[in-house]
Write a structure and sequence with these properties.
148 residues, three-stranded antiparallel sheet, six-stranded antiparallel sheet, 1 helix, mainly beta, Jelly Rolls, 44% strand
């Protein structure tokens, strides 16, 4: 997991061949003008999902993980207090892996919480279980999905 600001994103360009294009999209797009939903960038290899929804409590949030995609979650409005736990340490699956949605949920509790303010992002790799959208009020964010 990585927590940083969009101003420092160049530090991470070498981590994946599609990271430069993902950060280019985040920096060069009027993100506030994007409607909630999925936005194509490079087919199934790279796309953005805009979310605007009420925050939930820590107890309502479930850890999730993805096998096929890396997430870059950039907060636009509100503070998203995202939970984290290493996938290797998750021992209480709540669901089977859903291949179509590339997601699995866990009943484990996060071991840490990261308050992510507007302009900051978290990167979650397939070995990072995460519990997003925790906070008060509406959280608006862009989730970049980058194919592993």
């Amino acid at each position: 997991m990585i927590l940083d600001t969009l101003a420092q994103a160049d530090r991470y360009l070498a981590l994946h061949p599609l990271f430069p294009r993902a950060f280019e999209f985040l920096r060069g797009t009027d993100l506030r003008a994007l409607e909630p939903g999925r936005h194509a960038i490079e087919g199934e290899q790279l796309f953005a999902i805009v979310e605007a929804c009420p925050g939930r409590t820590r107890s309502e949030a479930k850890l999730e993980c993805h096998r096929r995609y890396i997430d870059i979650q950039l907060v636009l409005e509100g503070v998203d207090e995202m939970g984290w736990k290493s996938l290797a340490d998750c021992v209480a699956p709540a669901t089977e892996y859903d291949t179509a949605r590339d997601i699995r949920f866990f009943d484990d509790a996060p071991v840490s919480w990261v308050a992510t303010p507007p302009g900051a992002f978290c990167v979650f790799f397939p070995d990072d279980a995460h519990a997003p959208l925790v906070g008060a009020g509406t959280i608006r964010k862009v989730v970049m999905k980058i194919a592993v």
